Amino acid sequence: MTALFPRTFELPAAPPPLSATDAAAAIWLAPSTYIRLRRETAGLTHAQVADKLVAGGTALPVEREIARLLVRDLERHGVTARQPSALITLRRIFPLDPDIYWQLVYRQGEPPRLCHTCGCSYFDSCQLGGHDSADLCDLISDTLCSRCATAQAEGAAA
Ligand SMILES: [Zn+2]
Ligand SMILES: [Zn+2]
Questions:
Q1: Ligand 1 mean position to 129 CA, how many Å?
Q2: Quick check: 118 and 39 in contact, CB under 8 A?
């Protein structure tokens, strides 16, 4: 159960409210795009995710291939995971926020605030100092986080 409800015990303050102009400019990402961004940000290929899903070396090649196709299909436009458990399982392999995923699927209310470059969000921030770092990025707009903003500025300056 701890894997399902960790945030109950570490819930930070509510995210800052949207300003009117931010809300008007907000756009919806496709859930398939969200999954792709989070996987790419983690530096994993479809095959690497699939191997982790089926416990790598012990799985039959056909099982690994089926898993790879499932992972790939989740990133095809219009495809949505059928089971919430799929997102919980994927989150053990690379960082993502299942709530963001389902918000993007059902599109109720305002679009969630998340970085459209790396897919990070309020409860799923970039760790600036590497794995286990407590130094987290901030969302500096509805569609960009501080880490990606810095990377883009450095790219533009180079
Ligand atoms: Zn970002
Ligand atoms: Zn970030």
A1: 14
A2: no
- Give, as residue ranges, everything with CB less than 5 Å from ion ligand 2: 115, 120, 126, 137, 145, 147
136 to each of 17, 45, 123, 125, 140, how far by Cα in Å? 19, 24, 10, 6, 12
Which of the two residues, 29 and 56, has the higher pLDDT score? 29
Residue 134 CA, ligand 2 centroid: distance in Å: 13
For the chain, what are the domain ranges?
Answer: 28-111, 113-158
Residues 128-145: pLDDT tens digits? 887 677 889 999 998 999
Q: Please count the helices (runs of H) and the strands (runs of E) in the chain.
A: 7, 0
User: What element of type H or E holds 91?
Assistant: helix 84-91
